[in-house]
Amino acid sequence: MTGRRLIVEADGGSRGNPGPAGYGAVVRDAATGEVLAERAAALGTTTNNVAEYQGLIAGLRAAAELAPSAVEARLDSKLVVEQLSGRWKVKQPHLQPLAAEAAALVRSLPDVRFTWVPRARNTHADRLANEAMDAAADGREWRQSSTVDSQPKGADRPQETAPSLRTPSWTANRSAPTRMLLLRHGETEYSVQRRFSGRGDPPLTERGLAQAAAAAKRLAQLDVAAVLTSPLSRATATAAAVAAATGTEPVVDDGLIEIDFGEWEGLTAREVRERWPSEVGSWTTADRTAPGGESLDEVARRVRDSRDRAIAAYPGQTVVVVSHVTPIKVLLRMGLDAGPSIMTRLHLDVASLSIVDWYADGPASVWLANDTGHLA
User: Whole-prediction pTM value?
Assistant: First the structure.
């Protein structure tokens, strides 16, 4: 049969990003949900985004063999969907050839459109990708099952269960983590003068802009699914540089804003000690606040919500979080499962990078804290 409308579901993954990778793709009849083709392969060591593009390319090739009248490509990679829809530029050099190959396939097919879907609605392609990675880990090649699921994929069809991912034997976690690259904003006049800088909005200095550019150059080498940022201008300016370098668009999350220092805003520590000698010694206690300000408990609640939103939106992917000292310390504390005293024992330089992996089925892993190697 020719001329039918087809759905291509594609996915790819990497166990480590970069790490052992693979892709999967399934082609369905849009009217009945019948599975017409499956494709999967291991890719050796590469990144999530490379694997996602390879899955789409394989799916489009399989669809082309069926001479469709129209194709809807469904992926849970917002990066690939936005780039091939023409809304985001493909700035990563290693992705440009793959994007060009996918775009050429799109031009050869009639009426292709792209749709982003949550990972829970892309489990068939995800399963194929993991089967290919599992086969490679066992020294085998992936082979298509002798029977394919031809049941219509209607609204009443049960959801498939997402497969577990293999991980090294030294960890009990069996899911691909959401990796957060925690980037403090660049330098401002307040940071130079060591003033309390919360909800005030001093801009980046010239040096701060250079620091943001240096961080962006470092992060451009990675596959980044999203850049999340505090709404304050010193963070959004830093995030804009990173987003431009990684081919993404910055997403403002109000939960990532710095703690509210209330009446202490803009003052030095010495000035605060002189005016509030009794309050300054206890304000770092979780439930205490600067006069008119916000407590660490309140910051922790909103930062936890921001973290949970990011994990839900970008499961198994890498995101950059551009924020401030207090929210980043809160995330590191959560990652370490540490007590409140760690908030006064961590130091974070401007434009420093920290890394936390969040596993859906296990504890977090802190990989890095306060790294400023890119500023050297």
Answer: 0.61
